[in-house]
Design goal:
By secondary structure, the chain is α/β, with parallel strands linked by helices. Helix content is 48%, strand content 13%. The two termini are 46 Å apart.
Length: 263
């Protein structure tokens, strides 16, 4: 998966020993192998490992339905067979919001190839929340488990993690939350948690922070000066982070609304 989903694959697969990882790899991982596969259309796989039983396993994460997924996996299969001189079990974990409809095999007169295709919704959200593995907790965001409970649990686990895992997990959480449209639930929790500092460059977090700062200032203005006129709501709605910070500082000593908004 290109771009931002590389972050997700690193956090959800690398060094993970949880329920999802064991299911995808078919057992405990003994060694992470190079994922570079030359002479294929997608030269880097998401994860290639050697299990404790010696078997090589390949896993891909997929956020969208790809009608050519079977062909992509067949390319990987060919490269893996040439590299390791053996059959390599392959699995794709589908994370997308749409109903899964990708092919998982190629059947032709002289060719029969297939790989294992798993929808994240096949996992129990409650089991993933309860897991001690942070990757399982993160993936619970994509299941049908209660959103508020999942998001609160994940954010607590991220806060308790050590850096750089904490930073990577925070980024992965944001990507997965957007994938499922959990911005509303996320906005309820993020102001109370310290990890907002880890996500200070994320566009959604900045929007949430600005919105809450504007609402807080509006309430403070009403308490001191009475009901806010329409022009105050307009100014707050279009304010930048810098403006809001300046107005908040000015409010401490202001004797009128107009004094707060002197720009």
């Amino acid at each position: 998966m290109p771009g931002e989903y590389d972050v997700v694959s690193k956090v959800l697969l690398l060094e993970s020993t949880g329920l999802v990882a064991r299911t995808l790899f078919g057992g405990e991982v003994a060694e992470w192998l190079s994922a570079e596969l030359p002479n294929v259309r997608n030269p880097r796989a998401d994860a290639v490992v050697r299990r404790v039983d010696g078997q090589i396993a390949h896993v891909e994460l997929q956020a969208k339905n790809d009608p050519e997924m079977a062909e992509r996996m067949f390319d990987y299969n060919d490269a893996l067979r040439r590299r390791f001189k053996r059959d390599v079990p392959q699995t794709v974990l589908y994370l997308g919001p749409e109903q899964l409809r990708m092919p998982h095999r190629i059947i032709e007169p002289r060719l029969h190839y297939e790989y294992r295709l798993i929808d994240i919704r096949e996992f129990s959200g409650e089991d993933l929340i309860a897991s001690a593995d942070i990757a399982d907790n993160l993936l619970a965001v994509l299941t049908d488990a209660g959103r508020d409970k999942v998001i609160r649990r994940v954010l607590e686990r991220i806060e308790a993690a050590q850096r750089p895992v904490q930073e990577q997990a925070a980024q992965a959480f944001m990507i997965l939350s957007k994938l499922r449209g959990h911005t509303g639930e996320f906005s309820k929790e993020i102001p109370m948690l310290d990890i907002k500092e880890l996500l200070r460059d994320d566009e959604m977090v900045l929007e949430i922070a600005a919105e809450r700062a504007a609402k807080t200032l509006a309430r403070q203005l009403e308490r001191r000066f009475g009901p806010n006129p329409d022009w105050v709501a307009d100014r707050l709605a279009s304010a930048t982070e810098e403006q809001l910070t300046r107005w908040e500082d000015r409010f401490a000593t202001a004797t009128s609304r107009a004094e707060v908004f002197l720009d």
